[in-house]
Amino acid sequence: MAYPRSLVGKTVLVIGGNGAIGAATGRLFADAGATVLITHTPREQGAASADAVISSLANAERHARYAVDITDSCALGDLARTIEQKFGKLDVLVNAAGFTKPIAHRDLDALTDELIDDIFKVNWRSQFAAIRAFAPLLKKSGDGLVVSISSIAAFTGIGSNIAYCAAKAGIDVMTKALARVLAPEIRVLAVSPGVVDTQFVPGRGSDFNDKVASSTPLGRIGEVDDIAAAILASATLLGFSTGHIIQVDGGRAL
Predict the structure, then answer these.
(1) Could you give the CA distance from residue 4 to residue 239 in angstroms, rounded to a whole number?
(2) What domain count does the chain have?
(3) Which of 160, 182, 197, 237 is deepest in the core (most CB within 10 A)?
(4) Is the pLDDT of residue 2 over 90?
């Protein structure tokens, strides 16, 4: 398919590219002609899943995976230098890594200081640190793009736990603030899903998904390809958009 903004010859880095949404995003970008780089945790399981993602991409030999602890800003800086040496620049950065733990909002004691710190470290600080590390390479592109995964929990206040909602609200604020200061060389967008059919939230099963689907205007929960398509559109179709949060929730937040 020919897009208004071609991805042929472009280099895309998907942070958390071995996760469900990250992997789907990598496949769409590879199909569109981009070179796809993905990060994964240094653990053996992360490497195995990343290998599976790379092997599933079109022209698999063109793509690469990198083990990196995204909570380590020095490691992100090292990765930026590695990518610069090999590719010279970066065209698209997708922040798709994250984690959460279901905690009832009324259970204030269960949301411990340690869990709050971990949620913000992975879901907000690491996203900012990745943008900070790769901004110089994105500027070299002359048409750089950052897309971060947010959530409708950022503004509904309904989500797996209160800290997760707050971290995603921080993604929305960061998106708007960085869109101003990184323009015009880099556009900054966020994609805001509702409930998506993944194993991201531990303990959520078919009963939960069916309940949400029945109360969603479009009659179903999201699929990973719905979210990946919005990220792809940010790169290929929405060239005059920056600083916006793109909802992909089937009308869930209405």
Answers:
(1) 9
(2) 1
(3) 160
(4) no
Q: Which residues lie closer than 8 Å to 89 by C-beta, 6 or more apart?
A: 11, 137, 138, 140, 141
Is residue 138 in a domain? yes
Block residue for tokens 């993944």? 198
Is pTM beyond 0.85? Reply is yes
- Over range 107-125, report the average pLDDT: 98
**With bands split at pLDDT 50, 70 and 90, how would you rate the model's confidence at 207?**
confident
- 243, two tokens: 């600083």
Write the DSSP assignment of 99-126 as a string of letters: ------TT-GGGS-HHHHHHHHIIIIIH
**Contact assessment for residue 183 and residue 240, using Cβ atoms and an 8 Å cutoff:** no
In a domain, 253, yes or no: no
Tell me the residue length of the chain: 254
Q: State the pLDDT at residue 46.
A: 81
